[in-house]
Amino acid sequence: MRLLHIITALVTVIVLLFIINENNSSEIMKYFPIDEEIQFTEASTDLSLLQQVSNDEYQIRWIISSKMPEPVYLRQDISLLYMDGNLKGIKGLWKEEERDIHLQLDFEESDSSHFQAISYHHGEVHYPNDIIKSVQSMSHDNLYVIDSPYSPLEAFQEGTTDLQKNWQETLDHATNQQLQFRWKEWIDAQQIDTNGYDLIPLTSLYIYTKQPIDGLSQEETDRVIGQLWEGLYREYILPVSNIKKTSHQIIPIILIDKTRDHLIVLFNDENNELKLLRQNI
């Protein structure tokens, strides 16, 4: 039964990765001006603890879902999952003349960890006279899983009990220490003066779904975010989704110029080499 379970999980992963990479030669995520006439009726990401598989492993369910009131020319959803700051997986799907997208993956993991997922939901709407517009949203979820021999298996989004708060603090400290060290290496390598930038991890980008970047309007923010995901999809997501092992891909860091002239994204590419993506604001 255990072998069957593992095989099923592997097949699911292979299918999802194939969906991401299918038709790479023509697949792109393109930003167009935001469509004010239509929007998502639902856009969500959900992480949940399903069950304890054995004394050493538990099962996590990862769901990405988005709905629109009517089919549009092109629908694309992409989600990135990080475990303790390291890339765990990528799920994505694009469909033509589609309204809704639903993706689900169950996987097994062990040890206490913090899972973070961020998703970008996108629709491309075509009108007469070659007018093309975008519909977009972001969603996220996070889950702390405590797998300790001294207490029952449990999961939470935000610690409420003393035990949960202690575990959350411990996991956050270990992850942040690793990320800050690596981000500083990247920044130093590019000789960037961080005094001139606001820094935000990719996993926190969702805050700008309905909140403008300081100094910008919501309309300007939506354009910046849409163009940013276009670049991330082309330069980071698609190349990394082609590799078999992603243990060295930590959460990218975004540096937003304080004068709001440009932004920079630093990340490890598919060859585990530092890459810089620059975008004018």
Descriptive tags:
5-stranded antiparallel beta sheet; alpha+beta; globular
Strand order of the largest sheet: 4-3-6-7-8
Please state the overall shape, judged from the principal axes of the Cα atoms.
Answer: globular
Spatial separation of the terminal alpha carbons = 54 Å
Q: How many domains, in number, for the residues?
A: 2
The run of helices and strands is HEEEEEEEEHEHEEE
- Number of E strands: 12
What's the quick description here?
The chain is of the alpha+beta class and 281 residues long.
SSE order and pairing:
Blueprint: H1 2-21, E1 42-52, E2 58-67, E3 72-83, E4 86-98, E5 101-109, E6 113-127, E7 131-146, E8 154-156, H2 162-189, E9 197-201, H3 218-241, E10 253-257, E11 262-268, E12 274-280
Antiparallel strand pairs: 1-2, 2-5, 3-4, 3-6, 6-7, 7-8, 9-10, 10-11, 11-12
Describe this structure in words.
26% of the residues lie in helices and 40% in strands. The protein is α+β, with helices and mostly antiparallel strands. A 5-stranded antiparallel β-sheet has the order 4-3-6-7-8.
